[in-house]
Amino acid sequence: MAHTNPGERLRRAMDRECIALPGAFNALCGRAIARAGFEGCYVSGAATSVSAGVPDVGLLTLDHFCRVIREIADSSGLPLIADADTGFGEAEMVRRTVIEYARAGAAGLHLEDQKFPKRCGHLDGKDLVPTDHMIEKVQWAAKAAADADGGRFIICARTDARGVDGFDAAVDRASAYVIAGADMIFPEGLTSEDEFARFAKAMANVRRSTMQRGPYLLANMTEFGKTPIIPVSRFAEMGYSCVIFPVSLLRVAMGAVSKALAQLRRDGSVSGFIDTMQTRKELYDLIDYTPGKPWEIPG
């Protein structure tokens, strides 16, 4: 199954049910997500950026993102959706991004309609590119996906219009992006369960001639933002295809790191938190390593 096209795998999974895609901030985290039984994962631009010590404003290169994607895809064996921010440039770079992400092992990517430098979707003060500008990027991305792997690679269009021009503008932009070639829509910054339900209803009948149904829908379940905590089961009832948890695991990990460092600084010993650690045996088990035996790269 691991050798099946990742875009096809993810489409099949979403056709069955709404799936959770936890955010993997490195390869080991991706492997843990797979071991926990999830059917896919997500590579967040925010998590990738802060892991490199920089803010989520589009500072990292395409090559940096592709390296992270390749490591997570190889280690986890899971199909993943990866954040591509604004596409690393204009139309030609959007095409290159799609092809490079597909080569790195991603199942799909999402592009957003913000101006560069972009902001986190749950911050105020965002600016949008004109709709026709984003339409051009989606068209180039869709053509690149068709050329790269026959169109199985998923092109997701994210709109940040809800926080800039309002809910109706987000629906209008998303509809235009579907017609332009987007397979999936990501409405960022919705503020209530009612808005998610209304958005899904509006998208249900939006399609282009080659689509049998409305677009796949992605919901962003990030913490400490504009969206309330909503369970995957409820998103499923509203018609969403997948729910990303972009920075959840990084926040858990770094919360634990910060507490451990404070305790180590205070006590000069790890004795007070050693029981919270992953043991050496558990770590080796996660990466399928037995000391003294040759380790094989996952196929």
And the CATH topology?
Answer: TIM Barrel
CATH homologous superfamily designation: Phosphoenolpyruvate-binding domains
Q: Give the mean pLDDT.
A: 93
Query: What is the tally of beta strands?
Result: 8
Total count of helical runs of at least 4 residues: 11
Give the fraction of residues assigned to helices. Answer: 40-55%
Cα distance spanning the termini: 11 Å
> What's the architecture, going by CATH?
Alpha-Beta Barrel
Strand order in space, largest sheet: 1-8-7-6-5-4-3-2
Low-confidence stretches: none
What's the CATH first level? Answer: Alpha Beta
Oligomer classification:
single chain
Q: Indicate the overall shape.
A: globular
Number of domains: 1
Write a concise keyword list for the protein shown above.
alpha/beta; TIM Barrel; 299 residues
Structure description:
- This protein has 299 residues and is of the alpha/beta class.
- It has a single domain, classed as TIM Barrel (Alpha-Beta Barrel), CATH 3.20.20.
- It is 45% helix and 12% strand.
- It has an eight-stranded parallel β-sheet, with helices on both faces.
- The N and C termini lie close together (11 Å).
- The model has no long low-confidence stretch (mean pLDDT 93).
Note the topology:
Elements: H1 6-16, E1 19-22, H2 27-35, E2 41-43, H3 45-51, H4 62-76, E3 80-83, H5 91-104, E4 108-112, H6 131-149, E5 154-159, H7 167-180, E6 184-187, H8 193-203, E7 216-220, H9 232-238, E8 242-245, H10 248-267, H11 280-286
Parallel strand pairs: 1-8, 2-3, 3-4, 4-5, 5-6, 6-7, 7-8
